Amino acid sequence: xxxxxxxxxxxxxxxxGVGLLVALYLTWLKLADATALCAGxxxxxxxxxxxxxxxxxxxxxxxxxGMYAGVLxxxxxxxxxxxxxxxxxxxxxxxxxxxxxxxxxxxxxxxLFVIYAICPWCVVSALLVTALFxxxxxxxxxxxxxx
Length: 147
What we know:
Blueprint (H helix, E strand, L loop, with lengths): L5 H27 L11 H5 L5 E2 L2 E2 H21 L2 H31 L6 H26 L2
C-alpha cells in the first residue's frame, strides 16, 4: 500500500468501526424493543417502530452493521492480500459503500418525507457512511489514476 494512502486507509477503518458500533446499537434497540438514548433530540421511537425499520423481518440496522463489518473485512484483505487482491477488495469496498450511501439516502428521505421523524443515531450513521463513501472514492480514484 502506498504511504500517501495510509492515513486514508486508517480513516476508513475508524469510520467503519464507529459505524459498526452505531449500527449494532440500533440493531440491539430493534431486537430488544428498547428505548434509544436520544437525549430529547429527534424521535427515535417513531423511526425504530416504523414499517421501514425492517426488510423481510430483518432490521435495517443489521444490514448497516453487515455493511460496516464488510468494509472492515475488505480493509483487512487489502492489508494482507497481494496487489491484485487489494485492488479487487478496494473495488468491492467502493461497490459496498456506494450501495450503503444510496440506501442511507433513501432512508433519510423516508425519515423526512414519509414518516416525518428523525432518529439522531440514523443521522450519525448516514454521515458516517457518506464519509466512508468519500474516503473510499478518493482512494479508488487516486489508485486507478496512478496506473
